[in-house]
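We modelled each protein-ligand pair independently. The example shown here corresponds to the adenosine-5'-triphosphate entry; the chain sequence is given first, followed by the ligand as SMILES.
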Amino acid sequence: MKARILICDDEEGIRRYLQKMFLAKEYDVETFADGTSLLARIEGGTEGDADILLQDVRMPDMDGIEVLKRVKKLRPAMPVVVMTAFGTIDAAVEAIKLGAYDYVTKPFPKEKILGLMENALQLDLLMKENRVLKEELSRPDIPDNIVFTSAKFREVYDLTVQVAGSDANILVLGESGTGKELIAGAIHVNSQRKGRRFLSINCAALSDTLLESQLFGHVRGAFTGAITTQKGLLEEADGGTLFLDEIGDVSAAVQAKLLRVIQEREFIPVGATKPKSVDIRFVAATNKDLAKEVAAGRFREDLYYRLNVITIALPPLRERREDIEPLAMHFLAKYARRIRKNIRGFTPEALQSLQGYRWPGNVRELENVVERAAILTRGDLVTPEVLPIRPREDAPLLRPDNLLVSLEEMEREHIERVLRQTGFHKSRTAEILGISRKTLDRKIVEYALAIPGQGISGTLDD
Ligand SMILES: Nc1ncnc2c1ncn2[C@@H]1O[C@H](COP(=O)(O)OP(=O)(O)OP(=O)(O)O)[C@@H](O)[C@H]1O
């Protein structure tokens, strides 16, 4: 698709020169002789109908900087390149501060302006793609993908749909990997807010400072490294639903700030002075016993009551074994399709072994096990050999007494065992081991531990 360029300059000669040059490069071009007509065009247009603006900072009818400010307000994401005359470098600096992509000083060679515009358009395209990807990533598998046959889960699902419309905050409880995020997504799509955004954040995976800036956003210069103003998830999720995973891990300071958002429906971005108001439904989840955390003084009681207007408790997989087969078939179809293999199902022995296992990591562990099996299976049925679940793996490792191993080896084995037991849930593993998430990530890389679905860990990302 051709990019559409808006050009605003009071000199007719420049307008004609630029128009001819861009048309020759197959761009669509619209020209404007003053700020008023340019703003009228942008105001009347729709999002996405112009890709970039090339604007003179000197205008006959109004200050070019003022025009830029208004343009940025109307179309914050549209890249703007400003043209300045010799001796007006201050205006160029001001324009960049206000969010212009770059500037050129007149007179400019043709190649320079063409190159600059192409770069700006390229960057804009990347940013757009990035935004789409981010949205896709934050979207969980929703209803169609909730698989179950057990009466226990049916009860939970019915309750979910029933309370979804109420707009009350909801607390989802359940062991790691039981589908808490999936249920949060189902609450969102069954609510009035379904046209708006569903965003989620794992409160345990981030340091306090990072969590705060992710949630509340920050203004430029709020802390070292804050080179631009960044909107937080609260602002992004305005009108929609925000899923706070592992709420039980939030520090006292962030708990206080969250309480304020829920009570007053407003928050202050990090480094800002003025509050912003928001309308958000909160769905929080934890695998901790929050009531116990409250009793122990680690979680604010008032926040607990604000979040826990309604509770949905997800049963662990071992208490609803009827769901194992349909879930296994669902994941097998998903992963076989992804790797383009034709696998019909499981042999009776494989199925039996799936049904006999305790599933400490619940559905997430089952999904990982099936994904691995899909990769390793050669025929059209999954056999027990490719299922990395043996009753032995639940049992402690036995080793002849005379076989002495290093502390390191012990550490490696222990970390691996806990990872397995939690269904490769890193935050939970770190908690059990009494180390930070960061340390755990480092050790996973150091010991080259295999995380299902990720292969051998080579990065520090989750
Ligand atoms: N009933 C279900 N049907 C289909 N997929 C499911 C179901 N329950 C869970 N899953 C899948 O299992 C994985 C783990 O689920 P989810 O992330 O919702 O669990 P969670 O309880 O939020 O985990 P954690 O406490 O570790 O954050 C996801 O990939 C999810 O899609």
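The chain has 19 helices and 16 strands.
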